[in-house]
Write a structure and sequence with these properties.
9 strands; 15 helices; 5-stranded parallel sheet; alpha/beta
């Protein structure tokens, strides 16, 4: 049976449902039945997401990718949040949500194409309800709010504003008000929006505008902030003196703070907030308190601004290890299961490497052809010059080869 900590919970302590030692616990701030979560499946998702990340970094080091933003350490936050989604929900990611993309069924090779430079996007967002990666910090929050407005306008859905919703907030926990039973057939299936952001995005104007508009319009959107504590080399402490979730009160929306290395807490909080959104309760800000264990991107050197002791501390809170410990200790998985996952990850990695190297080179005319619905005369002239320039490069290369 899960134990309940006798220690009084500080309201700012992240909610935790699975300890770093792999023990299931309860927290009155976020009622959740762990029997409703498929932990072996969540473990598989996290292992494969990490393997995708590992292989992408190796490919970048071999010159196959121009850049890669690692998710190492944030697997629980991404898998937990993503597995709370329903197919009709729409996701607006940043550029690091490789685990979310995996859960939405996106071909991982599409992600690699973006960082290999063979595509400017790589996928149709409508295929899996997963928008293109957004490299401009915080911009995707406004895109998410716009999409949520579209849902309300298209469906005529009643929102909290229509009901005279009290948008005041006191760092509230929405889960207490809206406990969720995923097996309940009366639970609505109306679509909602899940927007991902990092702690650095909180300092961007777009994010603050998105919070204000989503709250005043009571839109069906959940903002999921992975507070990995470092906006490149700037620690969160130079951006704010209070937790991310506490800042929600200033915008009039509920804020909830969970252990971002705890896949169960992330799953439960997101599932509850999405329920609130799709039932007219308006937006919620979730803070998944976690840690980016690799550098910001492969172009960064984290050893120049982070302490080794800090990195070791968070390594001991590894999100995958705690799920594995729980599965072992409870007998929910045996050695054969873990061996099977490891074999699957190895096959997955081998296929990913070969598919990355086989990605087709793009036609250089594509940016010109798709800037506008119809190419302008000026763009047509520029395209002709560009083609002539590329032809001259090939001729020079051929000539050099002949001389050699």
């Amino acid at each position: 049976m899960p134990r309940t900590s006798a220690k009084t919970k500080d309201r700012h302590d992240p909610i935790q449902l699975l300890t770093p030692q792999g023990e299931a616990v309860t927290d009155a701030r976020l009622p959740f039945d762990p029997s409703g979560a498929d932990l072996p499946a969540l473990y598989r998702d996290m292992v494969l997401a990490r393997r995708l990340d590992t292989e992408a970094i190796a490919l970048q080091r071999q010159g196959e990718l121009g850049l890669w933003p690692s998710l190492f350490g944030q697997e629980a936050a991404q898998i937990g949040a993503a597995r709370a989604l329903r197919p009709a929900d729409m996701v607006f990611p940043t550029y690091r949500e490789h685990g979310v993309a995996w859960c939405r069924g996106l071909d991982p090779a599409s992600l690699l194409g973006l960082f290999r430079g063979t595509t400017l996007g790589g996928w149709d967002p409508r295929d899996v309800n997963f928008n293109l990666y957004t490299l401009v910090i915080g911009a995707q929050t406004l895109h998410a709010v716009g999409y949520a407005m579209g849902i309300v306008r298209d469906t005529g859905r009643i929102t909290g504003t229509d009901r005279g919703r009290d948008t005041g907030s006191d760092f509230a926990d929405p889960a207490v008000e809206h406990p969720v039973d995923p097996a309940d057939p009366t639970d609505p299936t109306d679509p909602a929006v899940l927007a991902f952001l990092g702690d650095g995005a909180l300092s961007e104007g777009e994010t603050n505008e998105a919070f204000i508009w989503a709250t005043t319009q009571s839109l069906p959107v959940v903002f999921f902030c992975q507070n990995n504590q470092w906006a490149i080399s700037a620690p969160y402490s130079v951006q704010s003196t209070v937790p991310v979730a506490q800042r929600a009160a200033g915008f009039g929306l509920p804020g909830i703070r969970v252990d971002g290395n705890d896949v169960l807490a992330c799953l439960a909080a997101t599932r509850s907030a999405l329920h609130t959104a799709r039932t007219g309760g308006g937006p919620t800000l979730i803070e998944a308190f976690t840690y980016r264990r690799n550098a910001h991107t492969t172009a960064d050197d984290a050893s120049r601004y982070r302490e080794t002791a800090e990195e070791k501390e968070w390594a001991a809170k590894d999100p995958i290890s705690r799920v594995r410990d729980h599965l072992v200790n409870t007998g929910a998985a045996d050695p054969a299961y873990f061996a099977g996952i490891e074999a699957e990850a190895q096959t997955f990695a081998e296929g990913l490497r070969s598919r990355c190297r086989a990605l087709p080179e793009p036609d250089p005319a594509l940016p010109f052809e798709h800037t506008y619905a119809e190419m302008t005369p000026e763009l047509r002239r520029q395209l002709a010059e560009h083609r002539a320039y590329l032809t001259s490069l090939r001729e020079m290369s051929d000539l050099s080869g002949e001389r050699a």
